[in-house]
Write a structure and sequence with these properties.
6-stranded mixed beta sheet, Aldehyde Oxidoreductase, domain 3, Aldehyde Oxidoreductase, domain 4, 7-stranded mixed beta sheet, 764 residues, alpha+beta, 20 helices, 30% helix
């Protein structure tokens, strides 16, 4: 067997050569004979009833394929959690950019003119655009009270903690929408054959999501729907659920025209019509002792789901569970809800609710520190979760995590104390203000609670006729390294060279449903299953006497060839089984929310310019415990990429809305950080292992999104002495506040909170 370890080394990316040489095929590189091009006609108002659709006389409509809701052969919905979102609006539109008509034509250049030639007469209805508006009873647009979903998490006796509190600290924190801004726009090609059914090829994350949606929409059985992932140029959650919509539109046009249809969004349509990170509002009320210990608290976490439910319940769930962060709460009550507005539906984005609730918590921890009169470092150290304690959902912390030690290392790597002292002195003399900020946090890997059991993911490993092995999973590659790392795991398990392991293209006709490529689950959950399936291949060959306990790569290849020659197809499958210690009560929302958590401490150093009010991030230390690093280069890349997106979330990426429509849907006016805007992001790892992950790995894809925003904003507050509780924090926002006697404002805010706690005690 191969004695040199493959896991833990930076082998070449499996698809890297094809990408850099231009040989990788994306969906817009593909064409089919007789192919038409499709386009979507969308609502230009936020809410209203469709009275009449007019087709302009300047267009020869006989040349076009036109699909209306009446042409849908199955149910007019995008099947996901619920079926509330129509594929094509029928009678009523509920948000700007809602699709209600589809067009196809052989000349893609005629389509924009045709789309503009379709006009609609509406009876407009009142619309709502914010969380606050949704919570008022004046206008109900969904259900009885505009609430898509709510959760209640309770631990201990919250009502009893206020009496013993030396301080009661309150705060409200908000986060805005954020665009995923993947490199490759969304796109799909669909083909229909009366005998074979519908086949779609596209840029996507979750083949079986699309498969499920097309079965219901097209009224077809499972074996008449095929979904194939093409090379995908980035996703970040933005290609989790929305590709089902585009695939549905392409499929309907293909079914009506009986010709292949390609739909490729341009950048503006992709930005204005598709999902974004949910805007959020979090309210904290925390009881604290005089020595800075959290006694308990109430947290209200609310997200704006947009016009339809889509994935809001799942995003809300993760945000609520992470709202207590990496701290021990003896008592806590978390009320979480997702509300409806007339915005385009919000959806998945890296972190999935946790960046929103953790931003609030980490800002609130700094606020508590100021009120109590201790440092931001010390308030965290005194409240960190420890082994043997329980999280907000009463999940027992079993692993030997020492967050105090992790904090100390991050502080040392960033020279936190020395720089903070230096900046405090320099800020008295200089116009430019410098500050240091920290964020400590955790992120659960995999689906929440019983989610993985519900998915029941299955993976396969096949022995091939040439003696190599091939991985069969629906887990997709979109730049994060899925193909490479899964092949590493199998090569390590079988003792084979990396080059002897391949992975099948995700194709629902070929691969089993290994679950969606989301929720930091691929390496930990799918990787562990792939490892088990590979063991099945090895043990089958051993049981047949074809290999011994120890073997060479050539002996394995010969044995595999012989087995295929004798028995034909040679495959081993593994299906997810929930670990015994992962027990979850869905009704009470209590128990083991995740099989494993990754842990992190991030430290940011910033400068605030007193003339332009702009902020530069000068240094950034990202330290995380991730179980086991399987591929150092890819792991580091994941952390750097997540940190960059987190800095963008904090300082740059503001979606401008007007009546529910994104106004800055171009890369010229939706600003993201570029290389000159960023510091060197210094990445460090700790490895404690994880029994639930392949070779001890945990998920890390979402973790680095959680910490940058609060670390950066905490650093800004440290620099200027004024609290900021919302992101993105733009120069104009800083300008607005610094003109209001900042130092006095912060002191008054803190003393008011402390005095409020004292008055409440006296009343009791």
């Amino acid at each position: 067997m191969n004695n040199s370890s493959i896991v833990g080394t930076s082998v070449p990316r499996l698809e890297g050569r094809d990408k850099i040489s231009g040989q990788a095929r994306y969906v817009d590189d593909m064409g089919l004979p007789g192919m038409l091009y499709g386009a979507t006609v969308r609502s230009k108002i936020a809410r209203g009833k469709i009275k009449k659709i007019n087709f302009g006389s300047e267009i020869n409509w006989e040349e076009f394929i036109i699909v209306r809701p009446a042409d849908i052969p199955g149910k007019n919905c995008i099947a996901l959690i619920d079926d509330d979102q129509p594929c094509l609006a029928e009678g009523t539109v509920n948000h700007p950019e809602e699709p209600f008509l589809l067009l196809a034509h052989p000349d893609r250049h005629l389509l924009p003119k045709a789309v503009e030639a379709v006009t609609v007469e509406y009876d407009s209805l009142p619309a709502i655009f914010t969380i606050d508006e949704s919570e008022t009873p004046a206008q109900v647009i969904w259900g009885a009270d505009n609430t898509f979903k709510s959760y209640l998490i309770e631990k201990g006796n919250v009502d009893a903690v206020w009496e013993n509190a030396d301080y009661i600290v309150e705060g409200e924190y908000t986060t805005g929408a954020q665009e995923q801004l993947y490199i490759e726009n969304n796109g799909m090609i669909a083909q229909f054959d009366a005998a074979k059914g519908v086949t779609v090829w596209g840029s996507l994350q979750c083949p079986y999501y699309i498969h499920k949606a097309l079965m219901k929409l097209c009224n077809l059985p499972a074996d008449k729907v095929r979904v194939v992932q093409m090379e995908t140029g980035g996703a970040f959650g933005g290609k989790e659920e929305y590709p089902s919509m585009i695939a549905a539109h392409a499929a309907l046009l293909a079914m009506k025209s009986r010709r292949p249809v390609k739909i490729i969004y341009d950048r503006m349509e992709d930005m204005t019509a598709t999902t974004k990170r949910h805007p959020s509002r979090t309210r904290h009320r925390t009881a604290v002792s005089k020595d800075g210990k959290i006694l308990g608290g109430e947290i209200e976490f609310t997200i704006d789901g947009g016009a339809y439910k889509t994935l809001s319940p799942v995003v809300l769930s993760r945000g609520a569970i992470h709202a207590g962060g990496a701290y021990f709460w003896p008592s806590v009550r978390i009320r979480a809800k997702a509300v409806a507005t007339n915005m385009p539906p919000h959806g998945a984005f890296r972190g999935f609710g946790a960046p929103q609730s953790l931003f609030a918590l980490e800002r609130h921890m700094d606020r508590i520190a100021k009120v109590v009169g201790i440092s931001a470092v010390e308030i965290r150290r005194r409240n960190f979760l420890k082994t043997g304690q329980t999280t907000t959902t009463e999940q027992l912390v079993r692993e030997e995590i020492d967050l105090g030690k992790l904090l100390d290392r991050a502080l040392d790597l960033s020279s936190y104390h020395a720089r903070k002292e230096k900046f405090a002195a320099e800020n008295q003399q200089n116009g430019r203000k410098k500050g240091m900020g920290i964020a400590a946090f955790l992120h659960g890997a995999g689906f929440t609670g019983s989610g993985e059991r519900y998915l029941g993911s299955t993976v396969g490993v096949a022995g091939c006729a040439d003696g190599t092995v091939r991985i069969l999973v629906s887990s997709t590659e979109f730049g994060q390294g899925t193909k490479t790392v899964l092949c590493q795991i199998v090569a390590e398990t079988l003792g084979l060279p990396f080059r002897d392991v391949a992975i099948a293209q995700p194709d629902t006709d070929e691969v089993p449903n290994s679950g969606p490529t989301v929720a930091s689950r691929t390496v930990m959950v799918v990787g562990k299953l792939v490892q088990s399936a590979a063991v099945g291949i090895r043990e089958t060959l051993k049981a047949s006497g074809k290999i011994a306990d120890s073997y060479s790569a050539e002996e394995f290849r010969a044995a595999c060839r012989a087995h295929v020659e004798q028995h034909g197809k040679f495959q081993s499958f593994a299906k997810y089984e929930q670990p015994e210690e992962v027990v979850w009560d869905e009704e009470k929302y209590r128990g083991s929310a995740y099989a494993a958590f990754a842990w992190a401490v991030y430290v940011a150093e910033v400068t605030v310019d007193p003339v332009t009010y702009s902020v530069s991030v000068d240094d950034f230390v990202a330290l995380q415990e991730v179980g086991k690093v399987l591929h150092p280069t890819l792991a580091k890349g994941q952390i750097i990429g997540g940190a960059v997106q987190g800095i963008g979330f904090a300082l740059y990426e503001k979606v401008i809305w007007h009546n529910g429509r994104m106004q800055n849907g171009q890369m010229t006016n939706y600003i993201i950080p570029t290389s000159p805007d960023l510091p060197s992001i210094r990445v460090y790892f700790e490895e404690l292992g994880n029994v639930h992950g392949a070779y001890g790995a945990k998920g890390i894809g979402e973790l680095p999104m959680d910490g940058p925003a609060p670390a950066v904003v905490n650093a800004i507050v440290d620099a200027v002495g004024v609290p900021f509780d919302s992101v993105p924090l733009l120069p104009e926002d800083i300008f607005d506040v610094l003109g209001e006697e900042p130092a006095r404002q912060d002191v008054v805010s803190s003393s008011r909170v402390a005095r409020g706690a004292q008055e409440e005690q006296e009343q009791r």
